[in-house]
Amino acid sequence: MAAVVPTLKLNSGRDMLQLGLGTWQSQPGEVTKSVIIAIEAGYRHIDGARIYQNEPEVGAAIKAKIDDGTVKREDLFVVSKLWDNAHRPDCVLPAIKKTLSDLGLEYLDMYLIHWPMGLQPTDELIPRDANGDCIIDNETNLIDTWKQMEELVKLGLTKSIGVSNFNSQQIQNILDNGTIPPSNNQIEMHPYFIQTKLVEFCKEKGIVVTAYSPFGCPTHPSAKPGDPKLLEEPKLIEIGKKYGKGPNHVILRWLLQKGVVTIPKSVTKSRIIDNFNVFDFTLTDEDIKAVESLDKGRDGRINTELFLKKSKDYPFDIEF
Ligand SMILES: NC(=O)C1=CN([C@@H]2O[C@H](COP(=O)(O)OP(=O)(O)OC[C@H]3O[C@@H](n4cnc5c(N)ncnc54)[C@H](OP(=O)(O)O)[C@@H]3O)[C@@H](O)[C@H]2O)C=CC1
Ligand SMILES: O=C1CO[C@H](CO)[C@@H](O)[C@@H]1O
């Protein structure tokens, strides 16, 4: 029998499963199979986004597993994200409708504003000018976007709403000016970038944190040969050995014990199954300290999204 995944209570009143499957860089030709494998292994939380350009294939897997009786829709926690080119108020409803239609679903469990920065609303997901530079939309206003996100809840198109890659000031702005508080902030978090201040801030405000790139995204487009690899860190390997576990398990277990959600990505059957084997051991306080000693502070951030640094809403210029 698959392990029961713990949940965290959202301020929307719903429960969010603490372990899910990431799907960025899961190619359309492979993601249906990997989501099917994940559901068969016990995963019930799937993290996706319009920009991953694989939502129809993720949806095909969900349909297959509902049709064959493995799961019911209500057993699943499906997350998607509003892409940067749809921040203008009139773009938000069409954007979720496109995602729902691609996924073949009536509703999402969580819909996030993917990044605070807006891009020009065109048919291109990443609109570029003649020089190849992204066309930033500095006319957008995150409160206007958020108000439309609130409408999606009222329309029953998503059960909860949240943000991703928002800094503390941007979150506070929404708390001060919105009606529905964000339930979730999905941020980069792994042993090289432990984000203590932002995680604490979110917790104080009743916002559940999701840790993305838990393994440090070894295939990130900015990765260079010779970069240190989290999954090869001797310290993590050593901690894992005490429990008969690998460095992947140590990282996921650390995140679970920190009280956050995490969404490791894999398209490899053995890894999808292996990453789920984290519910039968507990790290000690000493182990947790050793994991956190790998933190590089702000230098540990991988997903810098530097190509949008000129946006008025670029989030990473303040401490947290
Ligand atoms: N909100 C946001 O802005 C962002 C959200 N995300 C979300 O977070 C998810 C996870 O982050 P992501 O950046 O993809 O990277 P991860 O840190 O999850 O690493 C994924 C990589 O690790 C490999 N891997 C997975 N399990 C193992 C294992 N047990 N042993 C060895 N290698 C392993 C995978 O290979 P393989 O697949 O070949 O098995 C893949 O190359 C994304 O897929 C996405 O859903 C990510 C980035 C930004
Ligand atoms: O989720 C994501 C994966 O990577 C993309 C490319 O940098 C990001 O835009 C996005 O945050």
Could you explain the architecture of this structure?
- The protein has ten helices and ten strands.
- The chain is α/β, with parallel strands linked by helices and about 325 residues long.
- The chain has one domain (about 5-310): NADP-dependent oxidoreductase domain (TIM Barrel), CATH 3.20.20.
- It has an eight-stranded parallel sheet. A two-stranded antiparallel sheet has the order 1-2.
- It is globular.
- The model has no long low-confidence stretch (mean pLDDT about 100).
- Keywords: NADP, Oxidoreductase.
- It comes from Orchesella cincta.
- This is Aldose reductase.
- It holds the Pfam family Aldo_ket_red.
- GO terms for molecular function: oxidoreductase activity.
